Amino acid sequence: MTPPRRVGRKITTREPIIQEPEAFEPEATRRAAGVTESARANRGWWDRNADEYQVEHGTFLGDDRFVWGPEGLDEVEAELLGPPEELKGRDVLEIGAGAAQCARWLAGQGARPVALDLSHRQLQHALRLGGSFPLVCADAAALPFADASFDLACSAYGALPFVADPRLVLREVRRVLRPGGRLVFSVSHPVRWAFPDEPGAEGLSVSGSYFDRTPYVEQDEHGRAVYVEHHRTLGDRVRDVVASGFRLVDLVEPEWPAWNTAEWGGWSPLRGRLIPGTAIFVCERD
């Protein structure tokens, strides 16, 4: 799971974590960013920041836990992919897998997962944690799999918040799913884009238009994007799902649980008990 900042070669599996500090402080702005620029920027960002991300959030994510977002909604309770006992023997694609914690949990239920991520460094962390399932470094908009290869697909904050055209990803996922297959993906709740990305009281006052779809971009001193995140309204997300050949069967907005006292970027108990932080789309391929 890789919530955004805002808002195969054989490699030693126990490779030590080496953090490489940024050589510059990127400038945050809102501007256009297309498919190619977004993919290049985000591949580089996650390769540079995977170590820090896993250090900061690894305890919460666990090594083999399947959580849908910072609220801590666990698939073992939510069963959005189906009852755990029915996952055995199912072919499952995890998109934007990071260190493949979700795929590792799926393997523990007897499923046959494949963990895919754009970032080579994130997948090195998946190797470090171990597992017998395949790891694939590829762009979610060009999945390197044959048609009808999977029964299920899932993505916990992976890929979709970072792509300029989410329909490219959704159509690819539909292609590799078998008829009757299910896709479940989570993203930052679209309403969050109208609020500052702050965990405290300052993050509870509207500061911008919910309808402004201009991407959030961090760029270097030459104006090159080094991180890009794209906003879609709730209606946009629904239309993307339907236009890509899926049927939307559920939309889950997890409430913040009393047990979760942690802050994660702009997610916090204060905000989470007042406004939604995550939207989970449950879709089926006819």
From TrEMBL:
<dbReference type="GO" id="GO:0032259">
    <property type="term" value="P:methylation"/>
</dbReference>
<dbReference type="Pfam" id="PF08241">
    <property type="entry name" value="Methyltransf_11"/>
</dbReference>
<keyword id="KW-0489">Methyltransferase</keyword>
<protein>
    <submittedName>
        <fullName>Class I SAM-dependent methyltransferase</fullName>
        <ecNumber>2.1.1.-</ecNumber>
    </submittedName>
</protein>
<dbReference type="InterPro" id="IPR029063">
    <property type="entry name" value="SAM-dependent_MTases_sf"/>
</dbReference>
<dbReference type="InterPro" id="IPR050508">
    <property type="entry name" value="Methyltransf_Superfamily"/>
</dbReference>
<keyword id="KW-0808">Transferase</keyword>
<dbReference type="InterPro" id="IPR013216">
    <property type="entry name" value="Methyltransf_11"/>
</dbReference>
<dbReference type="GO" id="GO:0008168">
    <property type="term" value="F:methyltransferase activity"/>
</dbReference>
<feature type="domain" description="Methyltransferase type 11">
    <location>
        <begin position="93"/>
        <end position="185"/>
    </location>
</feature>
